[in-house]
Design the sequence.
């Protein structure tokens, strides 16, 4: 039995959330709302911890936020005087599917009890872990949060803020973390700001940290600003504090704008929905084609399809129905079964019958799903199918927390665009250019390592890369 | 704890499905696929029965198709030589939420063991039930299928086909049913064809009945034709048989095209997606307004919004993000909580900021959700909100299986359009006209009782109407 | 996976319970307590219904009482003004393991809504069912309660009491039933009183019906008397009413005293524990043997072992430890696995080492378990094992609700005592005589059909017997 | 909702189990059987880990062994070439009820991955834990196993055996542990042997460690010998190895013989069942009384009651029926409810009616249950109730893993025997003397700290004792 959405998208993001409330609040409920808004960033596990300064409640499990936190379990997390909480939704990155790897990770240390949740990946976690093992440390999970916690705990002479800043300097990679003690909420972002983290505040003064603004809105908070690359922020009775630990050239992950982030927010000052429209417009300028309608692959291709239609003047239409109940059904892992899953999820409407169709999607990873969608459209009577992709070809793996499949499975790392076109059976195929993407997103800098192989925040040691490839 | 999607749509449809396969097939699995495609027609319970001519397996429970039929329970329904099956998804109509009311209903009769599943409502079920109670019948459920089965069983001198035709003549209302014995699959539709039922066939010769074509496609079948109003069809070794029992003027339910049916099919010869585009175009012609963008209420308003944008020349844009995980979360039933549910489901994008927005939805029932959506747009910076609805005002309850709320809750039965506009806070509000809707859908006839109060297939006795009102 | 206690006892009893409370009471809770006390009579399913004169709540499912009725489900059955309730625990008799066959069975009839639960078996249910099918009745279960309810409903001109009395006259066999309408609790016992039913009353005036006195005590009621063979009793605002419908020679089932009933009660005036002591004493007189200790097979052989030890003067000792957690574990149905189950349940103590052991059990059905127990004792160092059984050899099947295995599996129907002794590997083997058993139990009459083949309440038609044999 | 058996016994034991098999075996299944046999030692959580030398599978959860390890989860633990495994059943000792505290605890260390499960308590765990926290260690649980694992991991220059021996020297208290790496099974017992651990071997050469012999028998192994106080044993390809690390005067816990251990085994050379008989005989000699029958409180009082009856010549009888389904039901924690629980569990038989009863139980902790049992007997007609207890009065708390309630709740620490007698309402009350108990058990030495306050293996620092008292 395999639970697997009929998808061929980059995966393995996580979402983090945190709250510091000067006055008592129902933080378990607010954290639930925040995690629910971040559900698209991880469907495999959910967890949270809540403290009132004395008690420290934690619960986490495999499943969706609404599956893990039923009414009874949410009640078990409630504290009348709660003022700090963090939460996490997870799609497995490194570390297997075990329940024991769910986050937040909680532990007793010489700085009191701590809870930590992270999004992203530390590229040198293995070396650091090995060194600490030799010094007598235990590792009860394969979760990288445990490495971070050990680094923090090891500095027994420092206070929590100093020790966290010290740990940030030692761990390389792309990450955004929320950390709590009984009294303080901390958040920090890697030196390049590869993974996102935003700060919000409610009218009652409560501070919020989240991977995306939607989770701020979900708890009635306003977006204040993004945590800066390399910045450590913390919240206590004194309000918001900040320390720039290791600021470097900002290179936030471009895939947040292409696909991951919800379209109702902005990150690092760039609106998600508007940037997707611009990607479609740019694509239409770069890769025009004569056709009758522009059709998105729902839901992630909608923004770019609207932009493409707008720039090209070709009518936008809904050519693919998406079954809202798809995603979680059991199917034997045969090729026939995988094709079935696409059919259970997407179904062509009459809009494509007899039409020359421009099909807009945000990315192609392995190409298998794309082939089936093209095929569905042809069976439904589309005369031509012109495939347009609002990201450049993905040729390199991500080491900063995104699972883009192993390199050998990335169709664009081993095939030319023409070969991919043939593979997926489209009449034409074109990707947005990398400069075109950067222009569409705007902003200062971007990580495009998966398109270019240039990794701003370092890579794992070579033998680790090999191991990762073997393990996938 | 209340499970309630943040919705204000007409509800309470059901979906039916049936298979007759001359050669052995994995009917449990095919029925699962068919029901999964019909999931949008009922999320409260799912069930199926399967027979190989001797054994007769049945399983049903509260929950989504994928929740009820996990691998183990699906295995329990499998029969190596299965050749008949039926299935059902349900949103509670008359009869409460009890597990005992899940369908199909199965029973031993003098015609052997029978399984029945229906969509719709019998308006004279209470009278027939009362008469049969007096004659000594038992009713173990409040499910109307049981009345139909008693009518069939009572005619002990007739065969199954005759007895079913006889029962069709006695029960009034709008309905579509699938019925199976160990050897035969039957399907029938009320005299006016209010509720839909289509016939399909697979390449291997297996016959399929379903509420919508999408379920045919889901099992690899082609659409052959609709079951005719008042027609009884059955399938056995001799193939497809038909009997026109009570054909009357066809008046299929207009809400199938407005909202219920999936956009990837056609019913009674009229394509769903194309008709929704036409509704939007008609609405733009009837109720034009100056504005900057046309925004759908996702997902059901998309087709009409595209049509409206196309006819008016005003750009289509995505102004509301819909959380795909919304729908099933527990919230206390307070007003504040209901508003929260809308916020957990819908969230404005930057597209509406500073814009004059035409918001397109398919219907307004109580108006509460509409007010919140208008409010969300204003908070996000929309300068004007012009609400356009692709159905006429709903002023009367449905007695044919759709729960449109009790009449006193129907905002349009007690308020003028201007009053509703004020209530929901829109700058302008307009509905498609009833003739305009008929023209957009096309076809021969339509039931528009909920707009006009003219009930083609009769109404319950008055005191039943009152009781229904009291019970809601 | 097979859930199967390591047992070779007669099985398939059920337990019934009912309450009529003139003043409001928490009947859901009291019924829960009553059913919990009757849990030993059926572990496969549990159910109850409760009414306050208007509402009629029912819930039932597969599982133990404490598994089915968790706090939430029990709350769902609570009614502030409840005054009637019935409940049932079930071990599957006729009718398969389906959830749909759980009791009580509830149905709407011309006498209002009714709930029925029964213990026992109607030997002519098939004929009655066939006749009613021909008349147009539906049967949604294979539960005999449905036949009884159809008989009651068919007499639409009679009131509930008359109609129930009429149904009692038509159904033959051994049974005890509780039946409730919204206002009245009824109880009745077959003409021979084969199955037990007792009446109790609480200090607050509430009346109780139950299969055994332990369930009366569990709800704080005192034992008033047994329902008489062939008697129909009912309770309403007027208190207790009685009608002797079909009294015949009383022949209560002897196995209630041998094995079924809890030792803390009495039935038909005969104390259970005391009668078991007398069975052991009688056995010691009839079948003495020289030995060092008397060891019971726990727990059902304890009473007889005490009696045997007392009469013989040979010391009683605990030679077999019984694991209190045994009974419900999954094991593959191989011979090796079945032996494993006995080992997981029973384990010898040092008491038997080097001893001549008299092992006392209440019955031998197939003999397989007995062989393993003898073997366990020998492995633990018992020098001799003398097997003594406090029931006569079981040579005939029971048609009154007890599953004693099909006749061909009854070891005593195909083997002599000496052959059985050899089979189980005991040094000596002896059963109590049938007259000895009758004398030990005392009372007026007894059903000993399984020892003698004389069936006081009739047998099914021969072809039914064959079918039963085939189906087992 | 409170899950709480109607018991007033010393609690909080755990059970440990381990296997080393030179040839591949189904260790998951064998560990399941072993844990099932030890179920009486802990009903709150169960867990196991299994390794084949490479993979290391672990699973654990709250619940009974048969609840945690259903077929699917057991399958998840199976490894074709498994050769090492350990398992644990737990009743919460120090550390709360959290799932995270279930054992075995597994961790990656510089000695490879390790799994540890323990029974008992380290009296200086807090001090050791505090010191390690200061050095930078993390503690993710409140489970003392984690302290032991940190001690082992800290000695990065030693091998696993040396490091374990070193850890044994640093942790004080009463404990028995099983520990596994991918290749080796270790077992060790505290210097005084307070907690039990036995060694067994199967015919196929597999070695077994378990808290009691019953678990050896459950997997087809023979008892080889007890692990000696202060001994460390380990098993690898070279067979059994032993190191006497810290042998001190043996003082095994006397309550293993009084109550904890199953009657079908022996510990430290002393048979459990036989010693209970001797306790009863000794009690009869020390505290005789004229009476008609001797009645045990089932099941734990049976052995002593038989001994008392044998020595006194007064007939043994079964005066209390014990509901085998009692123990796990939800009840509100009111006084009335607690009394209800006793009634749901125990019920008097007719044996006590009109009799002078000697009631034999193994211990009295708080006295509340005893009072109710005496009351039940009186209500059932007992003329006199003489309470005899086969353990001396419990006046001191246990610090070696047994929860005897906080000292102030121990009725015997604040009341004289006469006061207790009055409290429980018995006609007479007598306990076995402490020398009498020692004589009945025999053997070399015994820990009787809970009777005498003399703690052979040390006590926690005073402030810890106070904290413990506060926390209970």
Sequence:
């Amino acid at each position: 039995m395999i639970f697997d959405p009929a998808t061929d998208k980059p995966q393995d993001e996580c979402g983090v959330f945190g709250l510091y409330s000067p006055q008592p609040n129902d933080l378990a409920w607010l954290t639930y709302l925040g995690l629910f808004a971040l559900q698209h960033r991880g469907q495999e596990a959910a967890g949270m911890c809540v403290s009132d300064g004395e008690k420290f409640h934690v619960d986490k499990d495999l499943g969706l936020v609404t599956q893990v936190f039923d009414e009874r379990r949410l009640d078990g997390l409630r504290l009348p005087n709660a003022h700090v909480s963090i939460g996490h939704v997870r799609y497995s990155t490194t570390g297997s599917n075990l329940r024991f790897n769910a986050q937040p990770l909680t532990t007793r240390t010489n700085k009191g009890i701590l809870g930590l949740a992270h999004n992203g990946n530390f590229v040198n976690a293995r070396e650091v872990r090995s060194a600490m093992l030799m010094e007598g440390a235990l590792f009860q999970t394969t979760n990288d949060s445990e490495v971070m916690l050990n680094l923090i705990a090891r500095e027994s002479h420092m206070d929590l803020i100093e020790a966290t800043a010290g740990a940030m300097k030692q761990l390389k990679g792309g990450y955004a973390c929320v950390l709590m003690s009984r009294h303080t909420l901390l958040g920090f972002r890697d030196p390049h700001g590869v993974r996102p983290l935003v700060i919000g505040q409610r009218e009652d003064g409560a501070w919020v940290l989240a991977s995306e603004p939607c989770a701020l809105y979900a708890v009635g908070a306003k977006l204040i600003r993004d945590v800066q690359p390399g910045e450590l922020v913390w919240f206590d009775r004194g309000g918001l504090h900040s320390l720039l630990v290791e600021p470097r050239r900002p290179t936030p992950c471009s895939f947040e704008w292409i696909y991951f982030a919800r379209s109702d927010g902005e990150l690092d000052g760039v609106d998600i929905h508007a940037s997707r429209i611009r990607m479609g417009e740019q694509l239409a300028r770069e890769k025009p084609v004569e056709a009758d309608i522009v059709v998105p692959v729902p839901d992630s291709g909608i923004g770019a399809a609207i932009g493409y239609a707008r720039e090209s003047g070709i009518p936008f239409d809904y050519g693919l129905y998406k079954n809202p109940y798809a995603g979680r059904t059991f199917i034997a892992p045969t090729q026939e079964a995988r094709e079935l899953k696409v059919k259970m999820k997407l179904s062509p409407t009459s809009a494509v019958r007899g039409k020359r169709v421009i099909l807009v999607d945000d990315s192609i990873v392995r190409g298998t799903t794309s082939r089936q969608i093209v095929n569905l459209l042809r069976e439904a009577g589309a005369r031509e199918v012109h495939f347009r992709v609002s990201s450049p070809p993905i040729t390199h793996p991500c080491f900063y927390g995104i699972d883009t499949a192993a390199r050998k499975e990335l169709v664009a790392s081993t095939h030319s665009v023409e070969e991919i076109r043939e593979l997926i059976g489209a009449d034409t195929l074109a990707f947005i250019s990398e400069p075109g993407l950067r222009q569409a997103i705007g902003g200062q800098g971007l990580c495009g390592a998966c398109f270019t192989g240039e990794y701003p925040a370092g890579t794992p040691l070579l033998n680790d890369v090999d191991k990762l490839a073997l393990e996938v």
Remarks:
- Chain C has 17 helices and 23 strands.
